[in-house]
Write a structure and sequence with these properties.
Rhopdopsin 7-helix transmembrane proteins; 10 helices
């Protein structure tokens, strides 16, 4: 197995684990942001799988289209949709979801039918401008840029809200999770989104497939860690109920119910 294939395998496994953890939560409680995260990470896993296939057998029209569609266009907006549901509420999230689904269907039709205008053979990752026309490239730039902005802005806003709350008298006992740990969670989410957005352009090893694989594996691992690092002590349910919906969801993903424990009650928005 090549280094690029190994890195792609890591990214596929981590994103699949992320997908399964949010899917389990959605099946238990049917909260829309958990479904959005599940869809986003399923797309990321498909993109990583396509990249894995390319590292193993070379780029083909099908794996390149899947890699471009799910990796460069669709997965980040659906990850951002989860942030919108948590911070903006169900009403706003439902409106955004409707338009996002319509736009995603249109983008899928364009990418899957667009002619391949350049060669896919050779080493490295084919450049979008060498292989696809203007339309798919604009879709990728807008979707990834806007989606990453929503994720990063949401994480930073939540970190600021946490800091502001912690400054209020008596707020230091409102959460079972240390404020510094929650701040670290936000930092990891923002860093993960930034790392994924670089696409291996921050440094080079001389092998574009390996460069991209490094940042793909690191980015999704950091992002997943951002949702798991807020693991608080168990047995503090009353503290959980005082958390905002954003932090309560991180609490649930990180801990989950223990054997024989009931699901925690829903937190009012």
């Amino acid at each position: 197995m090549t280094a690029a294939a190994a890195l792609a395998a890591i990214a596929t496994l981590v994103s699949s684990a992320f997908c399964l953890s949010t899917l389990e939560r959605w099946q238990a409680r049917r909260r829309p942001h958990e479904l959005a995260w599940t869809v986003a990470m399923a797309m990321f896993a498909l993109a990583a799988l396509a990249y894995w296939a390319a590292a193993a057998v070379g780029w083909q029209p099908l794996n390149f289209r899947l890699f471009y569609l799910f990796g460069a266009i669709l997965n980040v907006p659906y990850l951002a949709l989860g942030t919108i549901y948590l911070l903006g509420g169900a009403s706003l999230g439902n409106r955004v979801r409707w338009w996002l689904n319509v736009t995603a269907a249109f983008c899928a039709g364009v990418v899957l039918t667009a002619p391949i205008e350049g060669p896919l053979a050779g080493t490295g990752i084919p450049s979008g401008k060498e292989v696809l026309g203007l339309g798919p490239r604009i879709m990728a730039a807008v979707a990834s840029g806007v989606g990453a902005l929503v994720i990063i802005a949401g994480a930073l806003w939540s970190a600021f809200a946490l800091w502001r709350t912690s400054r209020r008298p008596g707020a230091g006992t409102a959460s079972a999770i240390p404020a510094g740990r929650l701040a670290l969670t936000n930092v990891l989410i923002a860093v993960g989104a930034l790392v994924l957005g670089t696409g291996g352009t921050l440094f080079g090893t001389g092998d574009r497939m390996v460069d991209f694989g490094i940042w793909l594996a690191v980015g999704v691992s950091v992002l997943f860690a951002g949702f798991l690092v807020s693991n608080p002590p168990r047995g503090r349910e009353s503290a959980r109920e005082r958390l905002s919906p954003y932090w309560a969801e991180l609490y649930d993903i990180a801990t989950g119910p223990g054997p024989g424990e009931p699901e925690p009650s829903d937190v009012a928005a």
